[in-house]
Each structure stands twice: as C-alpha cells, then as structure tokens.
Design goal:
Length: about 260
C-alpha cells in the first residue's frame, strides 16, 4: 500500500506538471524561442552561465582525477607526499580565480537585469494588465487612445482565454495591477515573468516593464505563474503578434466607444 500510494502521488504530480506547461515551443532545449529582444538577452545570459558552469565543472573534475591518479599511495608503507604550507602563489591563485569568476558573473547579471527592468516611458503601445481570480483584463493604449478592455473567464485551453493583440517590431509597456491576491504575468516565449502584487501604487516603477517585440507573427500562450486559488490552472490567455497594418486595423475597430 505505501508503494501504491507513492506511485499514485508521483503520477498525480507528473500529470499536474504536464497540464501546467503552456503551449510553447521547447524544441530548442531548455528555453522556448524568444519573441522579444529582452528574451534574447535572457537566453544569452542563460547559455553563458551554463557554458561557464560546465567549464568550471570540467576543471574541477580534471583536478580531482589528477589528484587521485598522481597522489595515490603505491606502497603500503609509503611516506606522505611533501606538504605544502604557506605557499603564497597557490593561495593567491585559489583566492583570485574564484573572485574573478564571481565578478564576471555579477557584471553580466547586473547588466542584463538593468536591461530587463529599463522602462523608456515612451513606448509604441501601452497595456494595462489587470489580474483577478481567475482571469485577465487587458486594456491597450496607442497614441493616447484607449481601446475597449479584453476580459476573460477561467478556461481550460489558453486559446479560449482573453487574447492580447500586439504589433511586431514595437516597444510595449506593461502596467501590472491586481486588487485581490498575488498573481504572476508569464508568457513563456517572452522568457520573462513578473509578479503582480496588490497594494502597489500607480507611480511605483515595480509595476511596469517594457519589451521590444521581434518580427515574427504568431499566437503564444500565457498564464498566471503564481498559485492564486482554486482556478489558478485555468487562468490562461494568449498573446497574438500581428503585422503593423493588421494591428492598426484592430485598434481602429476596437476603440473605446466604437460601434460593435
């Protein structure tokens, strides 16, 4: 019985994880294909971190193997190898090398973090994202004109949820808001997510982030990435990237107060 219960728990966990994965293209490996310039920044940082980690691991393994091979006792009564003490060059080496490595990691991480959080204040499109239990409301503003909000309901398929339409090759500023519990705005193909925390004032820069869309059109899945209640798993939406002309037509037909 304990084994059966453990197996059932494992299967349930695996099923939950499978259902929680958005419809994104993971064919490139650990990260999906990016649809923003900021996503490319994260991808490069991620790949660079893996290369550095693998290189460090290779050096460490080589040193372990070298020590095992060349410092193994070959005779039962062999004397201890020469003991190295107070060797200033070696001490400087194993102090400075990790310091340089950490400094390099910190530099690239700080640089890319600044890029990801930078908001120009003059985007091509502004989107107010309102998260609530358990769906989304998107309100788009272009050239000072605000469109009709796109509101959704909890759904089992992201294609049935509210759809946010954005133009390619454009800067988009997101303003995140909620008045109930903590949510998280996540579009896997942006390779970026941001928590939406209630009670943050409108003028707080932590509510906003900005992206630059690339030239690839398509529909991409989005969801809440923070456990927020009973229907958290159904808090789905999609982002549709369209051409500039198609976006202009969409905005013209969806202006607030326009005819249905």
């Amino acid at each position: 019985m304990p084994r059966a219960a453990a197996l059932a728990l494992l299967l349930a966990s695996a099923t939950a994880c499978a259902n929680d994965v958005p419809e994104a293209d993971w064919s490139r490996g650990l990260l999906p294909e990016s649809i923003t310039t900021q996503g490319d920044v994260v991808t490069n940082l991620w790949n660079g971190a893996w290369i550095a980690a693998l290189a460090t691991g290779a050096v460490v393994i080589a040193l372990i193997v070298w020590a095992c091979i060349f410092h193994t006792k070959r005779k039962a009564k062999a004397e201890l190898p020469p003991q190295v003490r107070y060797n200033l060059p070696i001490e400087m080496l194993y102090t400075l090398v990790p310091l340089v490595m950490v400094s390099v990691f910190f530099f690239f991480t700080a640089r890319d973090s600044d890029t990801l959080t930078k908001v120009s204040g003059n985007p091509d499109v502004k989107v107010k994202v309102e998260a609530f239990q358990w769906s989304w409301r998107f309100t788009t503003t272009v050239d000072g004109k605000t469109g009709k909000p796109v509101v959704g309901m909890p759904v089992s398929d992201y294609q049935q949820g509210p759809q946010l339409v954005l133009p390619v090759n454009s800067t988009v500023e997101f303003d995140l808001f909620t008045d109930d519990v903590i949510h998280s705005f996540w579009v896997p193909n942006m390779i970026f997510k941001r928590d939406i925390i209630p009670g943050i004032p409108d003028d707080n820069p932590g509510r906003k982030f900005e992206i630059k869309t690339l030239g690839e059109t398509g529909v991409y899945a989005g969801r809440c990435a923070e456990l927020c209640g009973a229907d958290h798993s159904r808090m789905l939406f999609s982002v549709k990237l369209v051409s500039q002309d198609e976006f202009k037509s969409y905005i013209a037909s969806n202006q607030a107060g326009s005819a249905q």
